[in-house]
Amino acid sequence: MSPNTPVPNKMSIADAKKQARNQYRRLLTAVRKDVLADYGFVQKGVLFVAPHETVKWVVGFQASQWPGPTAVDFTINCGVYINGVAKAYSDRPEPDYPDPADCSIETRIAGLSPSRFDKWWILDGNDSSLLAVVCDDVTRHLRDFALPFFESIASIDDAYNFLLGAPIQGIRPFASPIRREEAIASIEWTLGDRDAACARLLSAIEQNAKSPGLDTTRHVLARIVAINPNAEGEHAPNGSQ
How far is it, in rounded angstroms, from Cα 142 to Cα 133? Predict the structure, then answer.
């Protein structure tokens, strides 16, 4: 290049970052229109929720806190929220748009793929051609892995049977036996079987006496004993139904 050749304008880091964020918003819109809307998902920011009678399907896009200077890095979390089980943990109102972390069953989308390797996508403000490629790959992951997973857990009974089944690597709460028993017990309680829920939690506490996090389990047990899930605001005396 000769000294007199004009140098192409290079986007500033701030402008490139802005472009990457715009691409991210466009991708979210495309995913909603092209895939998720057909399955009843409604968007709120980076959350997509499909309500069903006893469960909600949740897709949450999670941006990295440490992206490149001109990029947005993100992954996707998928969860099944079970209506009513939140009362076993707290008095917080039932959310219309639960976060994947609030779900009884939750995983990164890569945990549903055959490889189970963690998966992150990158959009860069200096390369607009990435948007179409990334959008196609995200769409494929949702269609091939997330949606079949959701369709297999379309009710509270499906969720209960799923949690009773063989543990699956990468899907919470299978990694923690005590959290798994809590999740199953909260479903039993929500379905009205308080005795089974209490027996399950007492057994879990006994068998995992040295496990961390038992304070949460004892808290859930105390609420299950005290609260009737089928009568809003009604507390059953002495744990009787």
Answer: 15
Per-residue pLDDT at 7: 39
Radius of gyration of the chain measured on its C-alpha atoms: 22
- Structure tokens of 113? 């793929």
Pairing of strands 42-44, 171-172: unpaired
Pairing of strands 171-172, 47-51: unpaired
Residues of the chain with pLDDT under 70: 1-10, 230-241
- Compute the distance between CA of residue 225 and CA of residue 104 in angstroms, rounded to an integer: 20
β-sheet bridge partners, residue 168? none
Say what the pLDDT of residue 142 is: 98
Whether the CB-CB separation of 128 and 186 falls below 8 Å is answered with no
Contacts 24+ apart (CB under 8 A), 220-223: 220/88, 220/89, 220/182, 220/185, 220/186, 223/87, 223/88, 223/89
- 3-state SS of the chain is CCCCCCCCCCCCHHHHHHHHHHHHHHHHHHHHHHCHHHHCCEEECCEEEEECCCEEEEEEEEECCCCCCCEEEEEEEEEEEECCHHHHCCCCCCCCCCCHHHCCEEEEHHHHCCCCCCCCEEEECCECCHHHHHHHHHHHHHHHHHHHHHHCCCCHHHHHHHHHCCCCCCEECCCCHHHHHHHHHHHHHHCCCHHHHHHHHHHHHHHCCCCCCHHHHHHHHHHHHHECCCCCCCECHHHCC
Using the CB atoms, write b or e for 137-166: b if 16+ within 10 Å.
ebbebbeebbbebbeebbebebbbebbeee
